[in-house]
Amino acid sequence: MNQHWLQPPEWSWNHLSKEEPTHVHHWVQQLNEIEKYPDLILYGAPISRSSISVSGASLYPGEFRRMWKGFATYNLDEDIDLAPLQVADAGDVVMHTTDILLSHQRIQETSAYLVKHYPNTLTCMIGGDHSTTACAVRGIKEVVPQESIGILQLDTHLDVRDPEELGPANGTPIRQLIDGSTIQGKDVINIGLHGYYNAKPLIDYAKKHSIQMVTLKQARKQGLICTIQESLQHLSAKVDRIYVTVDMDVLDISNAPGVPASTPGGMTAIELFDILLEIGQHPDVRHIDFVCLDPSKDSAVAETVKTGVYAWMQFMTGCMLKTRKTST
Ligand SMILES: [Mn+2]
User: Fold this and answer.
1) Fewer CB atoms < 10 Å away: N or C end of the chain?
2) Mean local confidence (pLDDT), 203-223
3) Domains identified in the chain and CATH numbers
């Protein structure tokens, strides 16, 4: 956990502007430019060789950064400017060209390094595919072995397929974490499941390990915000820290054409934005990731990448509201 594999992003905005930032590309600083501990550290895990369906999700960290210029730091809905938050970009984990296991090991070591050296800073990993989540959670657990970690998963799938069959892939991270005793199934809540995308043996595995499955239909009936609040409350009573993983395939296919595994009947972008605003405000949420967005599947207007940045901004707004609450 003393070694990291971070390299500066292949491409970044110049930071010559001395004026107060009004847009995200001037707001996010490079990690080495920040003297004190930032509120949140971003890092990219650009791997998608481990994806079951063909995916260019490895391109997302770069496209995510490029899209920043199109977003102001001011959130009109909440009448709040995010500029006072210190956000640092640590760059990307260096991936091996072909060796998936070695790349996964580097994501794990880098996640451990960041949590060890910035223990009070929120971390936000930008994937890559969903295999990266298992690496990040294992890395965190290495640093805080005595702590229990709960997972709030927004996903169309359970991601409990058998790594014996697939290797560590984007369909297996939750199973890897449970079978490897990094987390307990009862500390996993999955919201967003729907339809015909999880085979019966996977549901059986989830039930056997007490994973809490909340279908999108149930969540809508109860109210999504209420469901999220209850889930966070439930987890925070049981675990020491919460890791939130956002598989962008939770979104309806019409809202997320740039996600290879998105499906009909999924969450709307607006529902996801509302949920992330709640999640960002919870004090026990210490880590988040956004995975499985393949920018190469977008049209020329980059609709899914824009949705991905908006989703992240909603989480950041939640963090800002939390800061405001604790300082008053
Ligand atoms: Mn997933």
Assistant:
1) C
2) 98
3) 6-327 (3.40.800.10)
| Cα 249 to ligand 1 centre (Å) | 7
Ligand 1 centroid to residue 252 C-alpha, Å: 14
Q: What is the pTM of this model?
A: 0.97
In angstroms, the first-to-last Cα distance of the chain is: 36
pLDDT at 32 over 90: no
Q: How far is the CA of 248 from the centre of ligand 1 (A)?
A: 8
Spacing, Cα 181 to ligand 1 middle (Å):
19
- Span from the CA of 156 to the centroid of ligand 1 (angstroms): 7
For residue 196, how far is its CA from the centre of ligand 1 (angstroms)? 15
What is the 123 CA–ligand 1 centroid distance (Å)? 19
87: how many CB neighbours lie within 10 A of its CB?
Answer: 23
Torsion of CA 288, 291, 295, 296, to 10 degrees: 160
Is 150 within 8 Å of 183 (Cβ atoms)?
yes
Three-state DSSP at 56 gives coil
**Mean of pLDDT values over 316-320:** 98
Contact 177, 194 (CB under 8 A): no
- Does the structure show a pLDDT above 70 at 16? no
